[in-house]
Structure formats: structure tokens, C-alpha cells
Amino acid sequence: MKRFSLLLLIAIAFSTIGFAQNNSLGNSDPAAKNILDAVSKKFKTFKAVQAAFTLKVEDVKGKVQGTKKGTVFMKGNKYRVTITGQEIFCDGKDVWTYDKAANEVTITQLDQSGSALTPQKLFTNFYDKDFLYKLNGEKKEGAKLVQEIELTPTDKSKNFHKVYVMVDKKAQTIYNTRIMEKGGNKYSYTVNSLNGKAAVSDAVFVFDKKKYPGVEEIDLR
């Protein structure tokens, strides 16, 4: 599999999911909106979250190009994401992006404008007016009953043409997100476990240089 930037992963899997209520291209489905409202409301009750996820990439022929597993911690506006070879730490003010292969960490300031790419947006950023959406129905995914919501971008210049969001009906949380590129590649992001009552200390969200001997720092703050 191609080596993905973790920031790109977040951009694709966490924050491209905005939902339009209506626009000149047509109306969105009220049933889908009710489901997404419930997901957002449920997530906002969590004080701290720990989740495990899997990212799978398939080519135009459906051949799996690679799979990566990761974890994410969230608490307020703080987060930490770990995936094979990379980590991102954010304490709500600064962001540390660590590249294991290069043993290098880049430090930037978090964009406080509200447009920053954060994992929290997977669960709460539902009203950016970037998509039309509709409820495709319900189906079984293993033991889960999931509701599939199909999103079509209103901006046709985007490099993907569909996003499918699977919501765990019982838990009222997002289970899976699939992004369909115009070139035929598919990115699938699955939440394998989610704990909304995780005990997470603030230290988890800060890059501790002592734990990464010889790390090179690039401070762009």
C-alpha cells in the first residue's frame, strides 16, 4: 500500500463528512438527517473516547492494496491518533506529527478557526453543506444492524464521487465510512471498537520527546 500521511487519513476519513440540508441540486433525506442528528447528540455525551479502527485501500479492480490498523483518543478538543508508522498528538493548542521511519516530529499550532482537520469531526461535523445525502436502508454487518447513508458531493470538482456512512443503529455511532474516488480506488475506514467512557489523562495528548530517543524536531510554530 502507498505510504499515507496520517493528516491525509484524517482529512479523508474524519473530516470530509459534512451534510447539506438542501441546495439547488435537490433535497436531502430527512430520515438520514434524523439518524445523523442522533449520532452527533450521542457523541457529545462522551467525556473521553478511545477507539480502534482499520483503514483498507482497494484499487479499481477491488484488489486490496493494503490495510492499516490504528487507535484514536479524543477528549474535548484534544486528540491522539496512532497508525502504522505515524502518530499525531494534539493538546488543543499544538500538534505534533511523528514519522517513525524518519524519527522526525513536526510541530505546528492548531488552527483555532474551526476549520482544522480533527478526528472529532467524524462524529460531529454534519452540517457543512458539502453533500446531498439519503438513507439507503438497513442491513446486517456481522452482528450489527447498520443504516447506510449515501452522500454525493455538491462540488463536482472533488476527486471522489460518493461517500457511504454506516451507522450502528443500536449504538448510534458511526461504524464504517467508505470513500469512492473517481479513479476507482476505494478507502474504507471501520471503527472496530469505541469506548465513550475511557479514562484518558491529558498527558496522552502531548508528545514526550524522552520516549523517542534521537528524534529530530521541526518546529513550525
List keywords for this structure.
221 residues, mainly beta, outer membrane lipoprotein receptor (LolB), chain A, 3 helices
Q: What this model shows, in words?
A:
- With 221 residues, this protein is mostly beta strands.
- It has a single domain (6-219), classed as outer membrane lipoprotein receptor (LolB), chain A, CATH 2.50.20.10.
- It is 12% helix and 46% strand.
- It has helices at residues 6-13, 30-43, 121-124; strands at 22-23, 26-27, 49-58, 64-75, 78-83, 86-90, 94-99, 104-109, 131-141, 144-153, 160-168, 173-181, 186-195, 216-219.
- A twelve-stranded mixed β-sheet has the order 9-10-11-12-13-3-4-5-6-7-8-14, with helices on one face. A two-stranded antiparallel ribbon has the order 1-2.
- The two termini are 32 Å apart.
Layout of helices and strands:
Elements: H1 6-13, E1 22-23, E2 26-27, H2 30-43, E3 49-58, E4 64-75, E5 78-83, E6 86-90, E7 94-99, E8 104-109, H3 121-124, E9 131-141, E10 144-153, E11 160-168, E12 173-181, E13 186-195, E14 216-219
Parallel strand pairs: 8-14
Antiparallel strand pairs: 1-2, 3-4, 3-13, 4-5, 5-6, 6-7, 7-8, 9-10, 10-11, 11-12, 12-13
- Say what the CATH topology is: outer membrane lipoprotein receptor (LolB), chain A
Q: Give Rg in angstroms.
A: 18 Å
Please summarize the sheet with the most strands.
12 strands, mixed
CATH superfamily assignment?
Answer: Lipoprotein localisation LolA/LolB/LppX
Number of domains: 1
> Percent helix among the residues?
10-25%
Overall spatial form = globular
CATH C-level name? Mainly Beta
What string, H for helix and E for strand, traces the elements in order? HEEHEEEEEEHEEEEEE
Averaged pLDDT, please? 81
User: Which strand order does the major sheet show?
Assistant: 9-10-11-12-13-3-4-5-6-7-8-14
